[in-house]
Amino acid sequence: MCRWISYLGSPLPIEDVIVRPDHSLIDQSLTARDLFLPTYAPAAQFRDRAFPTNGDGFGVAWSGRGGALGQYRQTTPAWDSQNLRHLAAQIESGCFLAHVRAAPGGTIAEQNAHPFVHGGWMFQHNGEIGGFDAIKRDLTLDVDPDLYPHILGNGDTEVCFFLALTYGLADDPVAALTRMVARVERARAERGVAAAFRATICASDGDRLVVLRWASPDGGAAGPSLFHSIGPETLHIGEGAVEQLPPDAQLVVSEPLELHWSRRHWEEIPEGTIGVFERGVAPVFSRLAP
Amino acid sequence: MCRWISYLGSPLPIEDVIVRPDHSLIDQSLTARDLFLPTYAPAAQFRDRAFPTNGDGFGVAWSGRGGALGQYRQTTPAWDSQNLRHLAAQIESGCFLAHVRAAPGGTIAEQNAHPFVHGGWMFQHNGEIGGFDAIKRDLTLDVDPDLYPHILGNGDTEVCFFLALTYGLADDPVAALTRMVARVERARAERGVAAAFRATICASDGDRLVVLRWASPDGGAAGPSLFHSIGPETLHIGEGAVEQLPPDAQLVVSEPLELHWSRRHWEEIPEGTIGVFERGVAPVFSRLAP
Amino acid sequence: MCRWISYLGSPLPIEDVIVRPDHSLIDQSLTARDLFLPTYAPAAQFRDRAFPTNGDGFGVAWSGRGGALGQYRQTTPAWDSQNLRHLAAQIESGCFLAHVRAAPGGTIAEQNAHPFVHGGWMFQHNGEIGGFDAIKRDLTLDVDPDLYPHILGNGDTEVCFFLALTYGLADDPVAALTRMVARVERARAERGVAAAFRATICASDGDRLVVLRWASPDGGAAGPSLFHSIGPETLHIGEGAVEQLPPDAQLVVSEPLELHWSRRHWEEIPEGTIGVFERGVAPVFSRLAP
Amino acid sequence: MCRWISYLGSPLPIEDVIVRPDHSLIDQSLTARDLFLPTYAPAAQFRDRAFPTNGDGFGVAWSGRGGALGQYRQTTPAWDSQNLRHLAAQIESGCFLAHVRAAPGGTIAEQNAHPFVHGGWMFQHNGEIGGFDAIKRDLTLDVDPDLYPHILGNGDTEVCFFLALTYGLADDPVAALTRMVARVERARAERGVAAAFRATICASDGDRLVVLRWASPDGGAAGPSLFHSIGPETLHIGEGAVEQLPPDAQLVVSEPLELHWSRRHWEEIPEGTIGVFERGVAPVFSRLAP
């Protein structure tokens, strides 16, 4: 129940995609348009039950100085954050992940804010593991005991991340993420959890983006929305103006960064798909078959 | 651009009106229904341009132990606050003000959170002084120099409060608030400010509520919504259940605390009105004629 | 590496022991005197290596309205908190726990702030489980699976609390706490942890205080300081003035609440001791023999 | 009652002076050594009344991308901040100011955190205007009315900054700062304020540092400590290791960044002095004669 974006391409100041587009991630923190929550009661009053608010924190992680990963997370809303605006104007990167959080009923803490960073990987998620309390212990026990003490928050995403790390994220990210999804589904089955696992996830080592979109086949609900950019890299920044991105820019987003977007520029990533974005080549998608 | 409630009556735990009703102040922090913002761009996507989000802080002030005023304010959203829920279950009062803030472009700080408390008075506001930057200095210079150093925030509401204190809020609250509104309107005229002063305000000394609703006559925009409760004091708390308030309960609210409210229970307070609520008697309204 | 106090007796506003004494808990947040940290490098410059600063958060839990437990926690320092002062002046209780945190290298989060509250019990701790990362998983696996999802933070204290709950804190608190200490010591032994488990702990159901002081026998370091009040219940509040507490007041504290205290008023609780404080009777101490 | 550092020289990651030295600014947030506060009661228990704690916030401002000024400020202590460590490792600059705040009795707010940034200038301060409440209004009225609405906090430093901007900081910083000091002293005299104005201040436009050290001649107290680096640019970073700074590095600091420093490397700046540091030349000091 969040919104995120991931960028891969020539370095640019992160404000170019986080702040300046007319439906930037900051705009999505206050007025998201495609966050459809059919079963979430507070969404009932909105058109198509699209919930607008992602006010439970913000985070960004990036490939930075000397290839090291930078990270900045806050628990307060993105929309009025002066620090966020200043940092977004100053930080340049060729690979970054950014996230605004909606965590109804969850724990608001820096340790629960995305993106998570560990072992040279960044990780962010939109969605939820339904009935997580019932399977949290099972899943956590599967985490490598050496990694276990590095789990600092209490949410579902971080457990998914550490499972993926345990399953070899660094060696074969597609296999590791697939196995993680399979493990969650097995736990749901073993504990009789009816609520779905719904997820759009991005993992990155600073050189490539590995993204997936998933909804439990038996869960009765669609997966969260996910798009990637194609074609001419321009972004509407308001008042009819556009901004030019580097020609090699690749973006993966929960919803397009523009209020009036076209399918020529943004293509939906189908459910049950895992995709790999590398520099200078077209993304490769395959079926996510856990 | 906020939502508030004020209560006067027999003491009750403040959660009974802040948390439990099905459209409580907490609910209004995330999904307000009557916050019509015709000129605020982010409101454009919502039905009737009713903006849902009041996520820039929460505060409550109350008549407490030995008649002293208590105060609690936070800059983070009300909707997920554990502290707020715990405190609301524990604090009992027969007179309290509570507020959720929306401050687009403003400064997020505890010092700017409502209700303000000074000199035995509590004060909260929904609305704005249009073009405040142009008249802030004029208005602030009118504040009693002895009171001046007690202004701790940087917003319009606190200046209104200290003007009212300067003009004798403790001696004659209706006259002081009226003079404050007149002073703001004079400043607007002197500096040629076109944007309106729109306000619903509540001031209280712990024994009575003095409330007003105002919009600059030349401003072209209606004042923010304001209601008071009448008749049988029950509140819908969800699932068809109701909660009984004390028979002497009086509520003044930005919008009714119930999703499906009736005009038998909630009466709108007209624009250009100032009202005084005292214990055990019907409220007295008069024309606000600055 | 914290300071705490616990109170049992006739109800009083909690400011009487948290704020007003001349070495109150707030004063201890900035200038503690007895927090001896022989192995903590930043303590080297202070007299007797007594570290003064407990600035990583504050919390209070109390027996409140209708016997329900209240809780308020913040991650910011106690010393300059306006909310803390206001709440302390308003909240009255006959049984409360309050804590200022020092968490060098730890995670600053509301979820890690003491006192913890669950299942009708409050729990706070000063000290640390040395080498916690090495045994955290073992200990956590011993927590009742039904309780497991209620662990929200990532620190050692919360695991101790949930172990005690698992071991029957509600039925026999002395036995449950003793078994918890034994479990930690066994884990240390099994994993070859040399660093000591050092703890002063208070658990309370709102009617009694159960306190313990412990240091691993093989750890080579003394346990943290712990005192309880005896005799005439007066507290120095500065400028030669004293404040009278109720005659039945019982206090247990990390360090006395007065700058110039006497052993007639404050008695040290020996290491390896567990004590039970009930209303109206003298505390009962026994040897903590895990 | 704070600690600050300013850097001018070839670009380096700011962690090299903020985090890595063995008495870095982060270390000074928890265990400052030269913050002598002869009249501050809580300092009484420390050796030479040197108060160790600067836990009321942290900030950094820097000359950044394209010469624009970056800014990051937080109200929570520097010592345990993960964001601070991450950002310090990523941000490179050839001119930056950083500050840890101690604000006993003051308002903890991002708007009060140093460095302040406005109109292309950065500004930070250690010290205080004694009796500020008595002269705040006089001083604030002297601020250019066009600048007035940009004052967002409520502290003395920001007023000093806006006075300096009003007096032509951009045109002649030495003259503007001198006039600001004179204005404060005149206000003290006019209102009969006995408490001293004590200050070490740094203003910078990203190309040079203008620093001053001042104590009211009639105030009876010395000015806060201030040092600048000279000679070989190495910093002790613990365990006998040293770090090499760029040969053109110039540092001005409240106290040396090393636990065991020598007067060959750090020279005290005398009271009543104003100094200008420019790239590649020796600093120029003159008498501050307001």
UniProtKB/TrEMBL annotation, chains A, B, C, D:
Name the CDD domains for this protein: YafJ
Q: Which keywords label this protein?
A: Glutamine amidotransferase
Instruction: Please tell me whether the keyword Glycosyltransferase is annotated for this protein.
Output: no
Name the source's superkingdom: Bacteria
Q: Does the keyword Nucleotide-binding apply?
A: no
Q: Where is the Glutamine amidotransferase type-2 domain?
A: 2-280
Full protein name: Class II glutamine amidotransferase
Q: Which organism is it from?
A: Microbacterium koreense
